[in-house]
Amino acid sequence: MDGIVTILKTPGMTSSNVVFDVRKIFCEKRAGHLGTLDPAAAGVLPVCLGRATRLFDILVDKDKEYVFECVFGTQTDTQDAYGVVIARDDKRITKDELEQVLPKFVGEQMQTASIYSALKVDGKKMYDLARAGQTIEPKVREICVHELELVEQTGENRFLLRAHCSRGTYVRSLCESIAQRLGTVAYVSVLLRTKSGPFVSEQAYTIAELDAAKEAGTVMEKLISCEEAMAFLPEHRLPLDRLTPTKNGLETHLRGMQDGLVRAYAQEQFLGIGEIRSERFRLTIHLY
Fold this sequence. Notes:
Blueprint: E1 3-9, H1 15-26, E2 31-33, E3 42-49, H2 56-59, E4 64-72, E5 74-76, E6 85-88, H3 95-101, E7 107-112, E8 120-121, E9 124-125, H4 126-131, E10 140-155, E11 158-165, H5 171-181, E12 186-196, E13 199-200, H6 207-216, H7 226-229, E14 235-238, H8 243-247, E15 252-253, E16 260-266, E17 269-277, E18 280-286
Parallel strand pairs: 3-12, 14-16
Antiparallel strand pairs: 1-3, 2-3, 4-11, 4-12, 5-6, 7-10, 8-9, 10-11, 12-13, 15-18, 16-17, 17-18
Helix pairs in contact: 1-6
């Protein structure tokens, strides 16, 4: 049961809930998601199964894309619609004003994550500690917003935005920072992750759809193979006489090859992910 299934998470479910359900559907104990999605959020949540869990460190580091509605004039303690209102402001934001400040948030920057995030403190999630009333020091870390654009105005003081950003970017914090730049407050009313690395919403399934596919005997067709999931890496084909040494962990000298990760093959057999360093190749993730 090796591969990745792209889940379309619905609001109200935790990412752990999704993994639990996927384990039951595919009868596979080895399972893990590629990046937590807030319980209130919806969208793409890839889940690795079987040997695909070995790809976690590579896939979890990929960029994400979100569509979200920013509502100005109200601030909540959780930065979303589920929190308690802690501030209000009568200022009305125009489309032109918003478009002028968005470019200021594109690029590398330091971001303060919400205390209601899934980041961990001493092994415990921050949002669990915050809801228990404990005092938490907000975490600051470097992120990169590659693209940030206004999609449309959805109402008075309400705007739909799209963000293409690095792993670890908190959209709720981004929304609040935009509001601060505009001299007001805001919260995220709707958050949808449309892309996580190579996995997009068009290839995602709800848990209900997977359950139906299991009943119909077609659930295996919903899995993306490890080879297909890693298609963004260049491929390298080894001579057949290097197959056994490669499987045994030995290196192969390769002249003129650039450093980096590759999909490794011996003739037509997909072996896994290899790494080239200083013209030496080694298979680092065995997937055959």
